[in-house]
């Protein structure tokens, strides 16, 4: 596998000003992130609000300029590209945003909104636009006549399908989704998650999923990067990170997800301020496993924590944790399955798998 | 035991430009002292309108029908019944400190003088684990984090030891680790004070971990009602079945989620008969008539003509 996107020591600080507009420190939103995204993989970036995951996504597409570090996209340094070349490159990198009510222009028909990237990048000749837009609308489950309608005529789930069609119309090599399903109700969210998973497979997309929803991540990601206060603190194959988390923060995060019985160890307090970061390991003030060394040694994913597990067949990479004590931690608690419904529930749910707008009723002889 | 809350045939309708919208339609349930009941469902299912009707907080334009009995009709809202809302920033007063707001409740409902009320308010802030409570009591809402504001809301709600607490999506605006702290705190205080809780949420995980009983709502009606273990083990309404399959869990693998086709109906023109029928894979001709809540035994009821659903598996 080869990397399509490489982030090298990325950092972004937002200045904080006092009442008189004088600079007073900075929010360290992203603080030294090195990460590579392989062609064709689904990489999830997870973390709580303020951890820097959205800023990282914007830096990766150069929607924000980094203060430090560089972004390599398809072998080119994005930061060094002149504006015209950068604009051309944008055809290959697209983004899906969280709020489908804010991300579509209310004065553009759905068809025009989806065709806009085609025109900007001369992807198909003008005459082929309508057909291409129609194909994509069909593929995201909306039907070709949606092209003549306006965004306000659609529900949240349908608008997110439109946003997905718009992101995919220029055949991008990389798509970044920033909480693409977080604003949706659970039954509609499941439709869009299934649609995204299907499109990723069908188009062989490289997809970076930025999300705080660990359930959604578990369902679509190949690899997971866990962020805390501007840094990646754990990285590995999804099954590994969820089944055998090696950073105390990842464990606390998983334990806090409701549905597996009341959590045993709760994380106390709020995350420290990203303006005044704690010395040493950023997690040590809240860590149950902290040692003396954690107060003074700044842990980095790259140099201080060796891979926990080396490459194993079937796993797309090694498992890293930025924790001095990663190797000494007790075994992670096993996640207990919530669904007690078993085979009966699974059999009943099978009837819901038909993914058409109006499913045929199942004929059953009682 | 006499229930703390007894809701009978509750209906809530709003007038809209395009005709009346029945947000809640014929909803009945009862809540016993010290128990937690969850109303669960997606946006627009009527769970919040039910809560607001109980608190008497609906706008004057809403038409409420049916019967709500709180504590045998003896309740004082604010003292005996309290509510925690989703967004603490909009429900706290930005012009008063955290301590003043908790103290105000104690002055009004517990008859304490200003000094005693403030002392008690600081005690409550400490009890909801706000570190350095005496200092935080002098701070304004904008100086507190989201988790801390929600703790202040809980202190405010519980300060008079209400018999019933209505929590409307109390942790939806919070991060998952903070959510876990707040809910553990609520559970602990509930055990201590014997307060009954009506938990309104869209999150089945929260229901599983924190409720004793559940009512699943869909399009303004109760679709299914059961003790919590029973609902997760043997759901008897197709909507519950779909919802359980649609919610992604962290222990699941990379499987396809069971998705419920279509969207929730427009409540200005709901489908006649069963409101879930247009999205239901098990629908039959009988579903054109609205189903009553069928008793299934052990406090389990399902509003589905085809319940028990086991007959679906025989085929």
Architecture overview:
The complex is a heterodimer of chains A (366) and B (315). Chain A is of the alpha/beta class. Chain A has ten helices and eleven strands. In chain A, the strands form two sheets. In chain A, strands 6-7-8-3-9-10-11 form a seven-stranded mixed β-sheet, sandwiched between helices. Chain A has a four-stranded antiparallel β-sheet with strand order 2-1-4-5. The C terminus of chain A is likely disordered. Chain B is of the alpha/beta class and 315 residues long. Chain B folds into two domains: 181 residues, 3-Layer(aba) Sandwich (Rossmann fold); 68 residues, no CATH class. Helix content of chain B is 32%, strand content 23%. Chain B starts with a strand and ends with a helix. The chains are: A alpha/beta (366), B alpha/beta (315). The interface between A and B is large, with 70 and 68 residues.
Greatest chain-chain contact: A-B, 70 and 68 residues
Which percent bin holds the helix content of chain A? Answer: 25-40%
Structural class of chain A: alpha/beta
The end-to-end distance of chain A, rounded to whole angstroms, is 53 Å
Name the helix and strand elements of chain B from N-terminus to C-terminus, one letter apiece: EEEHEEHHHHHEHEHEEHHEEH
**Helix tally of chain A?**
10
- Class derived from helix and strand content of chain B: alpha/beta
Main β sheet profile of chain A: 7 strands, mixed
Q: Work out the count of structural domains of chain A.
A: 2
Low-confidence stretches of chain A: 309-315, 356-366
Distance between the termini of chain B: 43 Å
- Low-confidence sequence ranges of chain B: none
Mean of all residue-level pLDDT scores of chain B: 91
Order of the strands making up the biggest sheet of chain B: 5-6-7-3-8-9-11-10
